[in-house]
Each structure stands twice: as structure tokens, then as C-alpha cells.
Write a structure and sequence with these properties.
Elements lengths: L1 E2 L2 E5 L5 E5 L14 E6 L10 E5 L6 E5 L5 E5 L16 E6 L6 E7 L6 E6 L4 E5 L15 E6 L10 E9 L2 E8 L4 E4 L1
Antiparallel strand pairs: 1-2, 2-3, 3-4, 5-6, 6-7, 7-8, 9-10, 10-11, 11-12, 13-14, 14-15
Length: 191
């Protein structure tokens, strides 16, 4: 996975290596210094990583590491609460931190650019949660407006026979249109 000038590589042994731009701490190296060649992430060196989602560029970049057991680790810019941690929106992270409010995550979907990122987590039991940039023109799909610091349930897409198989979006700055496809071939749209 990659975002502008940052690269993330998961090996066949499920270890995460990173290099490149790190101005928002998005590489998870405990600082914001650029990394010239691939290095193993210290905070995840004993944790299996299945995949990484990265979004944004420069000072607005974030990344999300998903483990085979459904745990999520986050790092980088948190301007809009897009890391899903309830530390407030001005607290960025420079090392991968366990997001304890979501469990058994099967998929992560990120949409956005720069500091206006949004994220959706789909769990193995069909629960859909979201965090980050959230206004009337770019809603997350949860009842409240305003950036979500922490994780909010997206009840219209959660549970029952509505197993979300994909979430996609189109963004143009702060304007966003989102779609979710369920395993029953239902299409939901918002934004």
C-alpha cells in the first residue's frame, strides 16, 4: 500500500516494512523523520500484519494496519478524528497504536484526501463503524454531524442480512459521495 511518497510492504511472514515521507508520523516509526530505506516497524515487530491501508499525503497522511485476528493499529494525522481514537482531533500519533474500540475487523475502507479522511471498519459479524471527517456534504453514515473522534456505529449498514462487502467513495475536497454494496447485492448511497 502507499500514499504520496510513503510506502508500506507486508512480507509473506506478515511483517510490516515502511519507507519514505513520514511528516505526519504515518510510517509509525516513533517520529516524523523521513525513512530512506525499508525498515521493520518496531511497535509491530512481534504482531502479524495482514494488510495496510494508507491515505492522504504529507502532513495529512494516516495508515491503518489490520491483523489476521481482526485487530486494527493506527498511526499518523488525526485532524478530523480519522484514526478512530478518542484523544481529540488535534492529537496525531507517530507509532502504531491498537484501536481497542473495534474488534474482529474483516475489512477497512478509507476515503479522503489530505486532512479530511474518513474510515469505515466492517467486522466479521457485519457491524459497520466509522470515524473521521463528517459533515452534511460528506457524512459517515452515522446519525450525528461533526467529525467523529472515536468510532461511531453506522446502524443502517450494520448486522442482520446486510453484510457489507465493499464501501467505495468519490471525493472532491470536502465533498464526498459514498456507496456500500452488501452481499445481497443491495446498494446504499449517501453524501
Amino acid at each position: 500500500s502507499s500514499n504520496l511518497y510513503s510506502v508500506y510492504a507486508v512480507t509473506s511472514a506478515n511483517r510490516l516494512y515502511v519507507w519514505g515521507n513520514n511528516s505526519a508520523g504515518q510510517l509509525g516509526t516513533y517520529n516524523t523523520a523521513a525513512v530512506q530505506q525499508p525498515i521493520l516497524i518496531p511497535s509491530l515487530s512481534s504482531i502479524d500484519v495482514q494488510s495496510v491501508k494508507a491515505v492522504g499525503a504529507g502532513d495529512g497522511a494516516t495508515s491503518y494496519a489490520l491483523t489476521p485476528t481482526g485487530s486494527v493499529y493506527v498511526t499518523g494525522d488525526n485532524t478530523s478524528g480519522q484514526l478512530g481514537i478518542d484523544y481529540g482531533t488535534s492529537v496525531d500519533l507517530t507509532s502504531y497504536t491498537l484501536l481497542s474500540t473495534v474488534t474482529d475487523v474483516a475489512a477497512i475502507y478509507v476515503v479522503g484526501e489530505a486532512k479530511n479522511n474518513s474510515i469505515w471498519f466492517v467486522s466479521t459479524n457485519g457491524q459497520v463503524s466509522a470515524a473521521g471527517f463528517n459533515n452534511a456534504l460528506s457524512p459517515l453514515g452515522c446519525p450525528q454531524l461533526g467529525d467523529v473522534t472515536g468510532v461511531a456505529n453506522v446502524s443502517a449498514l450494520s448486522g442482520g442480512a446486510r453484510a457489507v462487502s465493499k464501501i467505495v467513495g468519490h471525493t472532491n475536497g470536502k465533498l464526498r459521495t459514498m456507496f456500500a454494496l452488501t452481499s445481497a447485492n443491495e446498494l446504499f448511497g449517501w453524501g
